[in-house]
Description:
There is one protein chain. This protein has helices at about 20-30, 45-50, 85-95, 120-125, 125-145; strands spanning about 5-10, 35-40, 55-65, 70, 100-110. By secondary structure, it is an alpha/beta fold. It has a single domain, classed as 3-Layer(aba) Sandwich (Rossmann fold). Strands 2-1-3-5-4 form a 5-stranded mixed beta sheet, sandwiched between helices. Strand 1, helix 1 (about 20-30) and strand 2 (about 35-40) form a beta-alpha-beta unit. It is globular, with a radius of gyration of 14 Å.
Amino acid sequence: MYSVVVGIGNPLLGDDAVGLEVVKRLKEKNEKNVDTKLCMAGGLELAETIADYDLAIIVDAVKGIDGVKEISIDDYKESVANHDISFPSAYRILSKYIRMPKVRIVGIGINNIEMKEEISDETKEKIPVAIKFIKKILEEENELVGES
């Protein structure tokens, strides 16, 4: 299975960068058969980034949730500044014209976004949890492919 894990965020907005940090650390662990990408935009750019993969795992900070959890594509609202259409809309549109992957979204709960270049200690504690969660998704998806 050709998979990509995409970290979303803005490195200048504190905890909003947690998705970027998770994917950087995942890349250091050198997961096999998994591409990693960092994205500081949502909407159409994010949808184009994941096109042609079999599986895309999007990792992003989400206000209003606790811990680390999966979010449906329809409930996903990018935390980054987005001046085009939303990711769910872009995904649906592109799906009509090109092969789009199965998408699973990992939300990491944050309390606030502020101008600073550091992730809070509270949010940093969720990074290993998110990495474990992503690895579990990758294992599940690879098992499903093996069953087909």
